[in-house]
Amino acid sequence: MIEVKELSKTYQLGKVDVHAMIDVSFRIDAGEFVAVMGPSGSGKSTLMNLLGCLDLPSSGSYLLESLDIRTLSPNQQADVRNKRIGFVFQNFNLLPRASALENVELPLLYGRVSNSHTIAREALERVGLAERAMHRPNELSGGERQRVAIARAIVNNPAIVLADEPTGNLDTRTGIEIIKIFSRLNAEGTTIIIVTHERDVASKARRIIQMKDGRIHQDMLAEGI
Amino acid sequence: MIEVKELSKTYQLGKVDVHAMIDVSFRIDAGEFVAVMGPSGSGKSTLMNLLGCLDLPSSGSYLLESLDIRTLSPNQQADVRNKRIGFVFQNFNLLPRASALENVELPLLYGRVSNSHTIAREALERVGLAERAMHRPNELSGGERQRVAIARAIVNNPAIVLADEPTGNLDTRTGIEIIKIFSRLNAEGTTIIIVTHERDVASKARRIIQMKDGRIHQDMLAEGI
Ligand SMILES: Nc1ncnc2c1ncn2[C@@H]1O[C@H](COP(=O)(O)OP(=O)(O)OP(=O)(O)O)[C@@H](O)[C@H]1O
Ligand SMILES: Nc1ncnc2c1ncn2[C@@H]1O[C@H](COP(=O)(O)OP(=O)(O)OP(=O)(O)O)[C@@H](O)[C@H]1O
Ligand SMILES: [Mg+2]
Ligand SMILES: [Mg+2]
Question: Which residue from A11, B11, B86, B140 has the highest number of Cβ atoms inside 10 Å of its Cβ?
């Protein structure tokens, strides 16, 4: 499903090299539920952006369903992203001038799915935002924006959901509702990779990858954590 | 210190009225440490924006250190904000084209404090970001941006710190470091009001105000919570 080998990402900032990710290797099979944890600045979002084909590595290889991502053209990468991957950004990344409903509908329009309005509305209902469908992002609370981003990530029934800190702005009860959605999707076969710093979210995963200073510090099955 | 009476905020959205906050009344004395909790969308940020003089209520009164905020001109409100209040925004609200150091330095320049460069650098060190001073917000991780916003809020030694979900993007250990900073400021006499959904953050407060559907649901001293 997902196989990364010695994947690295270095940012050049003026004369300084920032090694955000160094020699990351692992394999994730279809249907796994993986939590990625680690200190602030340890490289979790950098890893998620690479797995989501939103950024290219500085070195190393990334095979997604046996496709070598580096051989794909930008259009082909966009196609993989739209058809196979649902991405929940740490900063939500919503279109500011579109309503919650239009934001959620976007992946369906890109993929030319019919009946997109109804499907988008159902995804908003699932995250508890039926009453906020016409609000724009700046007319929503922080946690409501986060939930619009979650609805948009799952609306197209992706094979893989990559969620970067999806409950950071949610109260415990709303957070539990969201994790139930991910658990149900996983029970139906969706691969879930979720960055979190919250123990009770990580406890739903069956495997925990710990990052530290840009490297994998630990990669363990979740029993006994 | 802070006294609000029947404070309400209603947003007009097309033909619909959204009652984000309804008849909120309480008093917070100087030196208190208060946690504000409640479900996503319950009115916490709306309350914080009103207390931080960033927005005007639809009705009700707000006395800050016996000053009726509604009688102040916009310039006087900006002056109160800069001199008395440190605000940590839920979405950080950093200047995108300024470095971390320049963002933290801004309140000192506004207040014409000399030696602002050194003071700003110390605040960044306190939140663990000495090595990221020259990075712009889009060259920082989510939790690093959040910590820049925290450093900016405390740099001017405000009488009151209003922090809206300051640990939502931080791992547990980094979050504990941040809460220690707030506890130390509170021990020195700073009034702290913090929105959080994390139990271990709220446990450091001595009083918890629970919101629900725009109203105060419970306002209790923290023993026994
Ligand atoms: N500009 C606006 N126009 C219309 N409705 C708004 C606006 N801003 C906020 N709201 C609504 O007011 C309600 C309260 O918002 P608020 O941001 O105060 O909630 P919150 O308690 O901070 O939530 P969260 O924990 O998700 O951050 C929400 O349901 C939101 O949709
Ligand atoms: N565009 C960039 N230019 C330079 N440095 C960057 C850039 N983006 C990220 N970094 C640095 O790379 C490191 C890893 O960032 P990343 O966003 O992956 O961390 P993270 O684990 O997601 O942290 P958090 O938990 O705070 O969100 C950080 O120290 C950050 O400062
Ligand atoms: Mg991150
Ligand atoms: Mg809020």
Answer: B86
